Description:
Chain A has 15 helices and no strands.
Amino acid sequence: MSTATHDLDRAGQAATGGGAPVPPGERHRGGVGSRIFNGFSHVFLVVWALMVVYPLVWVVMSALKSDSEVIRKPLSLIPEKLHFENFGRAWTEGHLGSFFLNTLLVLAGSVTLTMLLGSMAAYALARFEFRGNRLIYYMFLSGLTLPIYLAAVPLFKGVYNTGVSFPLLGPNKHAMLILVYVAWSLSFTIFFMHSFFRTLPDSIAEAASVDGASHTRTFFSVMLPMAKPGLISIGIFNVLGQWNQWYLPTLLMQSVSGEPKRQVIAQGLIELSVNQGYKSDWSGLFAGVTMAMLPVLIVYIVFQRQVQSGLTAGVGK
Amino acid sequence: MRHGVARFVTGFLALPVALYLFYVVWPFAQAAGYSLTDWGGYSDSQRFVGLDNYVRLFSDELIRKAFWHNVFFLITVPLFTIALALFLAFLLNVGGREDRAGIRGVFGSSLYKVIFFFPQVLSLVVIAVMWQQIYRTDGQGLINGLLIKIGLVDADNPIAFTADPEPFLGVPAVLWWLLLIAVWSGAGFYMVLFSAAMQSIPKDIYEAAILDGAGRFDTFFKVTLPLLRDSISVAWVYLGFIALDMYALVFVMTPSQGGPNHASEIFASVLNFTAFQKGQFGYACAMGVALAIFTILLAAVQLRITRRDRIEY
């Protein structure tokens, strides 16, 4: 948190948006009103901050209570005794452990591939003239507006049929989910990187070419390093987006009886919460939610600057 | 210098295009095809029925309900989220004391920003499961528990939240409760977005305004807000997409995923219900195509309305 406190002073100056000098005679304009407004600002900001933080803290604290305490004293924020075993139970019996492993496996493949294929395609489309360039670009772009639900039924069928000839790409397989994630992430990645590659100067690519570098080499050793800020932004965007994906896995990663379960975290959490109806393990559920949200929150707090600018840049473009 | 361009471009595009065609374009194209049949999804028999499915959409009571619920979210989610985000950004950036150096941002504004942004990094599912516990309909829920404790709510008659189909302002209560979650999770993100946009406005514009005697409210409404137009319209478009995609919340939080008694049905939930519970895949595909057309039209209209001359600075 040292960065956060360090930022406070700087933010005070930087975040004004109106840090303009007031003419000497006007210095006291506002005076009391200004102070009241300042107080009001803080009150409201604190209230909203509490509305954001309080439920999160409540979930984490409930995860440390015993099951009976969750029911007896649902509101208390301080557990009578710390029950860390809830986490163990959610990890093993609630299968959180395997959800995590599956998610990491899938994301390791899908994010890497998305970034690689996405920037390759964006580069080819942004910097080379050829027939069909616009067509391919707009084909990728159109994917941004189409609702995923529309494709659900045929997609499921397509995956099922592929699985008959290529078992690794059938339903409930990691490799299949990786490819599906990549395909569905390409639209935005290409859209974003396309505008990025367009802004890079021609002269450097030409210099590399004069030096005898092939197009492929120019891309990997000159252009890609220059696009690093863009890659970081879109990388964060893809990691969060794919980590949070729940509809595609719910559709495609259903395990037929006898098959090993390969659910990812978001899907597993839904199952955990739905199953509460049959076997109530409240503290275990809270522990599961805590484990799903804490890693992301911690990564965010550490890299807050990059994450904030990465995600907002994704919208601003 | 340009030799080998064709080979290079093909090499770079082949794999992404193939993946995209197979997993995205082809399913969409097939859906459009199935929407003209009465295919049930499990059997191999399908009959071409022309536009029958589309005609049926217009007389389907459930679809009509879902349509208006979608419209409700489409208006309220962007409206409330942007209003709150602008308000927070305003407090954050102009709520500080006025002194020699002008109007300051409030003390600790970057800490506030970090906190307000929290929900954005949480997955929709985590948010939904968490709010399910907050919204519990007995004393074990966070809100009911608190309200019962301070005596505002009767323990025998707690707030029903997402199980409440009773209309409030003509819209089922369950939708308002879902809206609250959407606004809760989105406001911080757009606040950060607007704050960044506010800070990129050059200081001399403010100097000029202050020299002309504008106070902080005037400055905000007459200078800052108009200059934020671009960011606000982008936010509006994005929130529109989010509003169409409230399905995760409906799926996790409402009884029988669209209930109670279909009070919270939206397009996506009706589509899934029709395809996977009723086994009418052809009809479900027609809904999907209609939704896609609706979305594209909407995006086009929004881009049209919000487009205006850019102010460069």
